[in-house]
User: What shape does this take?
Amino acid sequence: MKSKTIIFDMDGVLFDTEIMSTKAWIQLAKERGLDGVIIRELADDCMGRNRKDIILRFQEKFGENFDAQEFLTAGRSLTQSWIERDGLPLMKGTVEILQYLKENHFTTGLASSSSTRTVMSHMERSGLGHYFDVIIGGDQVTLSKPRPDIYLKACEAVHMPPEEVIAVEDSPNGIWAAYAAGMKTVMIPDLVQPDAEMLALLYRKYDSLLALKEAFERDEL
Assistant: This one.
């Protein structure tokens, strides 16, 4: 049976914001004399995780006394200033895929590790909120991706068993979370390409949201 329910990650899938966060972290690291290589590794490792998990990752690398909360707040402020100046960048095909799904009566959800406040701000700024039947932020669950909690909550919210729901992700942590939830995992890589282990978890892989839309049009999914 073809899936008619699809849950999207947000950053790096719908919005081209992962690269902005990484750039902000690297800039702050340079200003503060932190190891840029470690910061870049943390950026890759933290994709898809919520704030609590990210803080723990920073303290593992820089020690318990490192003020990760302040660093992340500064990074978010820097990223927000760029968004205020330049606008919120969409990934190629974001509007097209969401419009297609709405016109064809899909149930569409959003499950992001960003806070609900950030997610709703992005929805308001982009005008995309009306496309989603369900929106789940990372602060609505205790355990972040790569654990399955946020996707299980999203599936419960749309009243569908996970095995009948497609999850669209860009990061390994997100793929692990969706796979652990029992969903059909679709990856559209952004900053991190899947390795052989990750490829084995995927239901499908596409280069863009436009390619995903074409797959739906071919009745591939």
User: Anything to note?
Assistant: Strands lie at 5-8, 107-111, 134-136, 165-169, 184-187, 204-205.
